[in-house]
Amino acid sequence: MASPYNDIVLEHFKNPRNTGKIEDADGKATEGSPACGDMVSLYLKVDPETKIITDIKFESYGCASNIATGSIITELAKGKTIDEAKKITWKEASEALGGLPKIKTHCSVLAVEVLRSAIQNYEEKHGLVINKEDTTE
Ligand code: FES
Ligand code: FES
């Protein structure tokens, strides 16, 4: 049976970039999928001055779609500021991979969500989340 995945996806699945864990991460998150019970974690190092993502790693316990998207999303986010990285969409990640099988969309969405959650975790830890109440000052 032919693989449902294209060559770019398979290459990222077999040789995922930026895998592993950052022990002293500035921001991190784990997202789990209720659909399959799989999980993906993502770790960030952020330059305190420029807010540029200087290092990023992910660990996936998911399928090829999840692993390939984790790989591409770390490549897309590395070297960007957290504000730029927040705007990376699932569509961009999926296009960079040359397309993903429809049935596996949620697995790849999970990898995009974990990046946003890790950035949110960084912002919360560093007091960058402005509460609505505070904006009235
Ligand atoms: Fe679980 Fe895709 S089947 S992440
Ligand atoms: Fe697990 Fe897609 S089946 S996230």
UniProtKB/TrEMBL annotation:
Gene Ontology MF terms in the entry: iron ion binding; iron-sulfur cluster binding
Taxonomic lineage of the native organism: Bacteria, Bacillati, Bacillota, Clostridia, Eubacteriales
Species assigned in the record: Acetobacterium bakii
Biological processes per GO annotation: iron-sulfur cluster assembly
All residue ranges annotated as the NIF system FeS cluster assembly NifU N-terminal domain in the record: 5-126
Protein name: Nitrogen fixation protein NifU
